[in-house]
Specification:
Pfam families: Peripla_BP_4. Its main location: other. InterPro entries: Peripla_BP_I, SBP_2_dom, TAT_signal. It is found in: Cell envelope. With 325 residues, this protein is an alpha/beta fold. The chain has two domains: 134 residues, 3-Layer(aba) Sandwich (Rossmann fold); 139 residues, 3-Layer(aba) Sandwich (Rossmann fold). It contains twelve helices and twelve strands. The chain has a six-stranded parallel beta sheet, sandwiched between helices. A six-stranded mixed beta sheet has the order 7-6-8-9-10-12, sandwiched between helices. Strand 3, helix 5 and strand 4 form a beta-alpha-beta unit. Helix 6 runs parallel beside helix 7 and helix 8 packs across helix 9. The longest helix has 17 residues. The radius of gyration is 22 Å and the shape is elongated. The two termini are 37 Å apart. Bound molecules: beta-D-fucofuranose. The site of beta-D-fucofuranose has 13 residues, from helix 3 and strand 9. Beta-D-fucofuranose binds next to helix 3 and strand 9.
């Protein structure tokens, strides 16, 4: 193991103090040096993402960590460039939230060769060799999808007619889009009355959510009973489309989304969104802790899961004042 004492002693004596940023337990060598963390963010596609960025910046400042922050504007190629630049700058730790799951092997191998530990935040990667990253911290997206499904099963209990669902998926190939779809399907497949009649990506943005919902309404009109949106922003965009089509959101069409951002609470309080499954973006403090733990030579668990809840509109007004994002 990278962090075992034996290995550490061995490497220290073999390589000497010149390997300051070797990605080995950093603390022994660099106790008085400010820890440098390179973070590659996906973009600013949603309220969730903005809150996540703020959390990371604030937590780095509070922890006295030098943060090199890079915004990829939702493009994997930009993230790969950012990671390479962090490697070239010999940062102590790299963290990133991978926009999609696949295609990371090469750059992660480069980081490993440079002995820079990599922490995944928020979204997972799909790699065969899981030694290419130290830990993955973030939500259980499958479970979020299941929570959304269970809420719908409960809500429609006793009704026998078809429940026609349209789905707004997140970014194609992203971990939350893949898993939120899967988790939801896993639950609703138990009853054939649930029918997903349309499913398309809205890329996690309000604008796309609205645009795709308009197309759904055009094609299916009043047949639509339920909208399942993989995030609140797309649901909020879709609410506009529903109102513009002369229908009542949360009444004519039941709306389920994920994240639990302020905008969703406002929509619930206004009676336009039925439920939001929580997905916390406040990963900053956990990330800084993990970076410091690495510095101190500690071994991190391979998976750190965020604790989360679900908020139906009935509790929105009561919960709203204590929401932090
Ligand atoms: O749900 C969505 C954002 O990866 C969990 O990305 C995150 C998702 C979040 O754009 O709003």
């Amino acid at each position: 193991m990278m962090n075992s004492r034996l290995n550490r002693r061995h490497v220290l004596s073999a390589l000497g103090a010149a390997t300051l940023s070797a990605g080995l337990p950093l603390g022994a060598l660099a106790a008085d040096k400010k820890l440098v963390l390179g973070f590659s963010q996906i973009g600013a596609e949603s309220e969730w993402r903005t809150a996540n960025t703020e959390s990371i910046k604030a937590a780095a400042a509070a922890a006295g960590i030098e943060l090199k922050f890079s915004d990829a504007q939702q493009k994997q190629e930009n993230q790969i460039k950012a990671l390479r630049s962090f490697i070239a700058q010999k940062v102590d730790v790299i963290a990133f939230s991978p926009v999609v799951e696949s295609g990371w092997e090469t750059v992660l191998r480069e980081a490993k060769a440079a002995k820079i530990p990599v922490i995944l935040t928020d979204r997972a990667v799909n790699v065969k060799d899981d030694s290419l990253y130290v830990t993955f911290m973030g939500s259980d997206f499958l479970e979020e999808g299941r929570k959304a499904g269970r809420w719908l099963v409960e809500k429609t209990k006793g009704s026998t007619g078809d429940v026609n669902i349209v789905e707004l998926q997140g970014t194609v190939g992203s971990a939350p889009a893949i898993d939120r779809k899967k988790g939801f399907e896993e639950i609703i497949k138990a009853d054939p009355k649930f029918k997903v009649i349309r499913s398309q990506t809205g890329d996690f943005t309000r604008a796309k959510g609205k645009e795709v919902m308009e197309a759904f309404l055009k094609a299916e009109g009043k047949k639509i009973n339920v909208l399942y949106a993989h995030n609140d922003d797309m649901a909020i965009g879709a609410i506009q489309a529903i109102e513009e089509a002369g229908l009542k959101p949360a009444k004519d069409i039941t709306i389920i989304s994920i994240d639990g951002v302020k905008g969703a609470f406002e929509a619930m309080i206004a009676g336009k969104l039925n439920v939001s499954v929580e997905c916390s973006p406040l990963l900053g403090p956990q990330l800084m802790q993990a970076a410091q733990d690495l510095k101190a030579g500690k071994t991190l668990p391979k998976r750190i899961v965020t604790q989360e809840s679900i908020f139906p509109m009935e509790v929105a007004a009561k919960e709203f004042p204590s929401r932090k994002y």
